Amino acid sequence: MRTPTSARALVAGGVAAAALMFAGSPAFAGTDANVYTTNNAGSGAFHTSGSVERMQACDEKANDGLYPVLELKYGGKEHVLPNIGDDPDCRNSTINIPEGTSVKVRIYLNRPGSDTHNYHASSWHNATA
Question: Which of 32, 29, 43, 30 is CA-nearest to residue 125?
Fold first, then answer.
């Protein structure tokens, strides 16, 4: 027969075990990145939110003949947010990158019809999916 002291210890041990079981492994918190071209004519963002990452590129100086391009590099892959055109809109996109993956993010300006000139490029910023 159990004594009251050993019963309390058993209950306390069971509560602690249940807390560990429901806590599970800690959730991984990714890191975001906000980037700007060196002339502040373009801005970009990379945000993590669970299993899907969000990207956004905005043209901060419309009708200047340039458009912003947001570029990601991760796990040996490269992803570019499509051309948003030379207007004051933002373009949003989602991408699924495995959780915990290191991501490099930068933004630059491009001129329509020119794929080789990257104007006012930001430095690469580190983020984590």
Answer: 32
DSSP output for 106-119: EEEEE-TT-SS--B
pTM of the full structure: 0.72
Altogether, the residues listed in the chain come to a count of 129
The CA distance from 71 to 46, in Å, is 10
Each of the 129 residues of the chain gets a pLDDT tens digit; together they read 444 444 444 444 444 444 434 444 445 678 999 999 999 999 999 998 877 899 999 999 888 888 899 999 999 999 998 666 666 778 889 999 999 999 999 999 988 777 667 899 999 999 999
